[in-house]
């Protein structure tokens, strides 16, 4: 039986449409007879404040000690802010992705290593979003043992998080809310029955495996070997296998304009790399024999070939760009990449040609250049896209890890041994920063190696820097 105060809050939630009954399709695709939309609270500041007080009381009752609060982005940010302001607790904001410019931080606000942070969430089903936030903040050195949620849908989050070492405190439970609404005559017995049955059947929602695998500094990360064993896509398996065997996470970008020079670079850096990235369309003397020669070098030194074509057109056009013209890319490039911007059609077009040849595609989620126009929610949408095309998408190109799924490979360009930039907007970070702080698996290095006096020795140097940075995380 809930308190009179909570019963009246439930009643208000129902009246303003936060808790709805009917037929709904949840984010997971599941059909549900109940929906909770706490985003609406921002339109009712008095209610937001009342719930912030309930969050505070719940934590106080639990005897939880903490130094700072952090809301799960974005829906829980107003609630966390309200707790912070109302009760004078410092707050940090978790970014969903690192900024592509400036400080490139993933967390905004002042905090110190070892501080205790409480995670605030608006509504939980499996607890996956809380867990993602825990992983990220832990990687930044914060200590997290508890989280608090406004509305627990009672579909598995408490157990899932407990198994991962996090205690979840709930201000409200969905069944309690529903019973209160029934007692107040707001909903009928049939609705109560339907929701109760739904919750009984769906009370063990799991955190999707790709979200449950840890990937950050303070926790053990999976080795390339372990990741190879988890992969379904043969090309991803092969790349992780090469990385493990050759002890390298280096991809050289051989941006030169003649075939002979490119083949020379491939031969020189071959022993040190897992992937060779090229731009076939800048080769002035590209000819039909070149791909065969390149494939021979790739076979000799055991690396894969990545044509950085950055497809960005409609499905029909990219299919032709991939298979026709003088480059016939699909015949020789193990990996290609594309901008997900045009929507699913681009992958459908590329897949038509690529899948039967065992090829793989990287999605460009973020760019390394200053002032790029990639919107904040683009990486998230890209990750979603990848999830639906696992038969062809093998990973991402970006500046931070989008999802901690161990079966996707994260490539990061814009790498040099010293942080710097070029005169055309390219921005460089070090191998250590990319791998240890941003979750890169493979570093892409171009001019840092190709313009060096001794490209072979320099490639060996980058290889060591990259692999050491990865090894320190294990
Ligand atoms: O965001 C990006 C994506 C890519 S693929 N930024 C990039 O620089 N790249 C590519 O990485 C770019 O096309 C080039 O081939 C390489 C970086 O080369 P560097 O000489 O600046 O290291």
In the CATH hierarchy, what is the class of the largest domain?
Answer: Alpha Beta
Rg of Cα set:
25 Å
Helical content stands at 25-40%
Count of strand segments: 18
Going by helix content, strand content and strand pairing, the class is alpha/beta
Q: What would the principal axes of the Cα set say about the shape?
A: elongated
Reconstruct the topology from this structure.
Blueprint (H helix, E strand, L loop, with lengths): L3 H12 L3 E7 L5 E6 L8 H17 L6 E4 L5 H11 L3 E4 L12 E2 L8 E8 L3 H12 L6 E7 L4 H7 L3 E7 H10 L5 H13 L7 H4 L11 H7 L3 H13 L3 E4 L5 H11 L5 E4 L11 H12 L2 E8 L3 H9 L11 E4 L5 H11 L5 E5 L13 H10 L5 E5 L11 E4 L7 E2 L5 E2 L2 H7 L4 E4 L1 H4 L4 H17 L3
Parallel strand pairs: 3-4, 3-6, 6-7, 7-8, 9-10, 9-18, 10-11, 11-12, 12-13, 13-14, 14-15, 15-18
Antiparallel strand pairs: 1-2, 4-5, 16-17
This protein binds 6-sulfanyluridine-5'-phosphate (S5P).
The site of 6-sulfanyluridine-5'-phosphate has 14 residues, from strand 18 and helix 17.
What features would you highlight for this structure?
474 residues; alpha/beta; Rossmann fold; TIM Barrel; 2 domains; eight-stranded parallel barrel; six-stranded mixed β-sheet; 18 helices; 18 strands; 18% strand; binds 6-sulfanyluridine-5'-phosphate
Written account of the structure:
The structure is a single chain. With 474 residues, this protein is an alpha/beta fold. The protein has 2 domains: 4-201, Rossmann fold (3-Layer(aba) Sandwich); 216-471, Alpha-Beta Barrel (TIM Barrel), CATH 3.20.20.70. It contains 18 helices and 18 strands. It has helices spanning 4-15, 45-61, 77-87, 128-139, 157-163, 174-183, 189-201, 209-212, 224-230, 234-246, 259-269, 290-301, 315-323, 344-354, 378-387, 431-437, 447-450, 455-471; strands spanning 19-25, 31-36, 68-71, 91-94, 107-108, 117-124, 146-152, 167-173, 250-253, 275-278, 304-311, 335-338, 360-364, 393-397, 409-412, 420-421, 427-428, 442-445. It has an 8-stranded parallel barrel, surrounded by 7 helices. The protein has a 6-stranded mixed β-sheet with strand order 5-4-3-6-7-8, with helices on both faces. The chain is elongated and about 80 Å long. The two termini are 48 Å apart. Residues 209-219 have low confidence and may be disordered.
